[in-house]
Amino acid sequence: MKWGRKSMLVAAAAAMLATAACGSKAGDSGAPANEAGGAAKPGNAILATLGEGNDNLQGKKIALIMQFNEGAFSAQYVAGVKEQVESLGGTLQVQAAGNNLADMASKLDAAVNGGFDGILTDHGTAEALEAGVKKAVDKGIPVVAFDANLNVPGVTVLQQSDEEMSKQLLEKMKEDIGGKGNIVKVWVAGFAPMERRQISYKAFMDANPDIKEIAHFGTADKPALDTQNQMEAILKQYPNEGDISAVWASWDEFAKGATRAIQQAGRNEIKVYGIDMSDEDLQLIQDENSPWVASIAVDPKDIGRVQTRYLYQKLHGDQTDEKVVLEAVMVTRDALPKDKKINTTELGEYIEGWGKSEQGIADWMGRSDK
């Protein structure tokens, strides 16, 4: 995903990227999910379980096909899928395509023909996924997608409330900078959530002429490192205090890179606002010397849990909505404890609505509050 002059090239290079996320490397070639997400630590999570009389759903084999598995966000998302699949008595295999859409389509085809009972997809484009998803549906294999603009009858698509997330974050930034100033935008085209976030960004900028965008960039290729490098160049171009008021980062990988560049330059008067949240992000936000002061997000583990629940509803024979919107919450440094560091498992103690979503828990399911 690229941005500005350079970014446009990367958007093309990413060849129709499909969305935003974050993290470390994912399991490939059927690698178990725990290799990607690490040991699941449910904390106070709410997990669906198989209700009485649903023994026929035990032992289901689930495939998770990912466009990429980069960053802590993706690792935590995979961990959420894994713990929910296992709580429902199934097994999970993860296939990550390294941001190669052709490879993602190939892995999807392999899953359709590989004896899986259900398929989850993470990101991707309609062009890359539609043929494989239709094959799955024709074979009676249920599919639930996350952050892809798919429109295939019988398929449920999950997405975050991207336009609203973007709007709320921009309003928070506006409040903090006093309604005026110069900002840097980090964004990339070609991903469904990014495109939705851009809608709110454009409307906001049109409505706030005293806030000026002085630079924009972004890429999906090593996003945190590329952002750091490009932000360092922009800080040299605008060297004086007051030249830049804030950075609006449409993905937490972008926010991490911008934060590191600003810290290293000693320019912490510049504030960073991000979208999405992981344990790594939270550590940066809690640092009182960090420019990253707020982020809006859905718990990535909850995304994985909810997506899995809808897949199991389909396996149960339930009718499910075509689109499910996951509501986000704002996380600000001011709301976090000053006397200790916390992780996202503990974040729900301080941020209402974090980490305990009950979306997708059907009446026939049991539940386990961990």
Give the structure's gist in a few sentences.
Helices cover 38% and strands 19% of the residues. It is an alpha/beta fold.
Write a structural description:
It is found in: Cell envelope. Residues 62-318 form the Periplasmic binding protein domain. There is one protein chain. Helix 9 (252-265) links the parallel strand 10 and strand 11. It is globular and about 65 Å long. It contains 11 helices and 15 strands. Residues 1-42 have low confidence and may be disordered. It has 2 domains: 13-161 and 300-328 and 351-369, Response regulator (Rossmann fold); 162-297, Response regulator (Rossmann fold). It is an alpha/beta fold and 370 residues long.
What's the SSE blueprint?
Elements: H1 4-13, E1 31-32, H2 33-37, E2 46-49, E3 61-66, H3 71-87, E4 91-96, H4 101-112, E5 118-122, H5 126-138, E6 143-146, E7 156-160, H6 162-176, E8 181-186, H7 192-207, E9 211-217, H8 223-237, E10 246-249, H9 252-265, E11 271-275, H10 279-286, E12 292-297, H11 300-316, E13 323-326, E14 329-332, E15 366-369
Parallel strand pairs: 3-4, 3-5, 5-6, 6-7, 7-13, 8-9, 8-10, 10-11, 11-12
Antiparallel strand pairs: 1-4, 2-15, 12-14
Helix pairs in contact: 3-11, 4-5, 6-7, 8-9
